[in-house]
Specification:
Strand content: 15-25%
CATH topology: Uridine Diphospho-n-acetylenolpyruvylglucosamine Reductase, domain 2
Helix content: 10-25%
Length: 118
């Protein structure tokens, strides 16, 4: 079921113009790499912060709209792809490396940081 237009407008206002992924780019977020799984979402957004992500999720919960969170879309089992009608929340704008500790061999990063970037 498609998300109501009112909710999509609310979400778009939360993430701003840079955070709304245009339909031309949707195939990058709606199919897994091998093309085995995927669906047509109602909206694809890329929040810039944890706060924006929380606000998007809150709006979706209030409207009973499903979400599909997505990191790098590199999974091979289809869990990161939409089934249809939900809001895809892509983490691609959340790319800060918060802490790197060579002594502990650990990194603290935002959800959109890829292994190649880390």
């Amino acid at each position: 079921m498609a998300a109501p237009a009112k909710v999509m407008d609310e979400i778009a206002s939360i993430v701003g113009p840079k955070g709304v992924i245009g339909r031309a780019e949707w195939p990058l977020f709606t199919r897994e790499l091998r093309g085995r799984w995927g669906g047509e979402p109602s909206l694809v957004v890329a929040p810039a912060s944890t706060e924006e992500t929380a606000r998007v999720v809150k709006a979706c919960v209030a409207a009973r709209v499903a979400v599909t969170p997505q990191g790098g879309n590199t999974g091979l089992v289809g869990g990161q792809t939409p089934l249809g009608g939900e809001v895809v929340i892509a983490m691609k704008r959340m790319r800060k490396i918060r802490d790197a500790s060579p002594l502990d061999n650990s990194l603290t990063v935002d959800a959109g940081v890829t292994l190649a970037e880390a």
